[in-house]
Amino acid sequence: AVKPWMGSKDCVAIGMAIPGLVNQTTGVIEWTTEFNLPPIPIAELLGERLCHRPTVTNRTYAAALAEAWLGAARDAKNLVYIRIGDYLGGAILVDGLPYWGSASAAGSIAHMTVDPEGLPCRGGSRGCLDTVASGSVMARRAREEIKRGRNSSLAERIDGNLSLITGAMVVEEAKTGDVIALDVLREAAEWLGIAVGNCINLLGPDMVILGGHIGRDAGDVLIQPVYEVARAHAYSLPMRSVRIVTSVLGDEAVACGAAATALWSNLTQSLSLHVA
Asked: What is the Cα–Cα distance from 88 to 111, expressed in whole angstroms?
């Protein structure tokens, strides 16, 4: 037998956040585009080695819960959270609680089709938002524009080695006024605005948060064009009620959200046992 690495007095719950789709009932990682792995019963495997069976959730949902608990969405009941990093992620909160959907796959805004004739997506579809608005796409688009002969401070920054360009660099140079970086960011904002407008029409949230290290750092350079495009595509009534903001929590957001999910799960289980 493997002894737990911590005693039961040291913690009341354990939370874990991972990239990919997590079955919220079984704690199985069903699918992830970042690791080529079969379904993994991660909660069961770790529960055999820890003092508690961990509560496992998707990392974007964890970040969204952290913003609702500690950050920008403390006064919002219904929330759409879009994580913009090298890849995209999404989460939906309804009445302050995560909406997972029947297959624990709700909120997958990265795989919302915005360009049916577009590029293949990691998830197997084509023209998904992830193929036109993620950080990795921003980096690729910047490299393409530089190869066409356009001048950019990005090329100077990486001493001509275009493979070193990242989405985060594109955001940083856009904020200094670099034309290529601004063009690339505005292009991504167009696609994001279409997706956000669709989310507003479908869900009528109080707030849409653009998070992740790119969404958070871009600030108004991204928020303003996303808002304008979303307003052009969203029905006026729900648009009047929504705020589109950037996240306020940093890299600790996912960990905080994982902790919140574990505590909430532990509390609901305790209440159920007490009522029974």
From this structure: 9
